[in-house]
Design goal:
heterodimer, A: mainly alpha, 0% strand, elongated, B: mainly alpha, 2 domains
Amino acid sequence: MTEVEPGTWTNIADAVAAICLLAGAFLTFAAGVGAVRFPSLLARMHAVTKPQVLGLVLLLLGLSLRVRSWSAVAMLALVVAFQLMTAPVGAHLVSRAGFRTGKVDESELRPNEMEPEDGHGG
Amino acid sequence: MVVVVVVAIGMVVVAALLALVRVEKGPSMLDRALGLDLLTASLVGAIAIEAAWHRRTETIPILVALSLVGFVGSVVISRFVAREPEGDEQVSSPEEVAAQARASDVMRTEQGHGGTAAAEAPDEQDEQDGGRTAGRGWRS
């Protein structure tokens, strides 16, 4: 798939790609550790959402630096866009459902922006 | 590059296993949804690393599809999650289900709970707790 003549720049791109792959895999690993170790639902939601998305973005950046073809880069940008759009929505829905079904300790929320007094609760 | 790929794949596989541990432990359906989210993400990561290793681009559409499917799963679970009865957080093992069925209801055991006890267990729980769960409802 390499459309560029091999040379210094392709070596640099491969090296940067290797670094991105390692960093992305490490962040995915960190998300897994957080998902198992963290004590509450919201903490696990945080661990699964934020480091995992950044790790995935880094992995896809490494992949695009490695394949070096514009059509692949366009599709990988689509994947990144989907992740950036859907991860906050999914995390919000999970934490809201957890709050409404009483799985969140409300004394830990400061400020508690979903207090029942406002009549809507988000 | 080989070392990088092996190390990266190893970390992603460990992340997937940890996600499986979370799916097994629960304690609620939402935690399982999070675990499955992470499992899908690590699958996407593993496919990306493999594609980077072989410089192949034909597996990239799989990444597009998977990144959307994982989202739909967690959204559906969190939309239809209900309050779970106390003690119902863990999925029972077949032996536990069989013991429960023997102890609680002779009629049900007569209808046959042999090898498919584990598969039928959630339905049974729903029948028993349906009224209570619906009665509590969601806040607001």
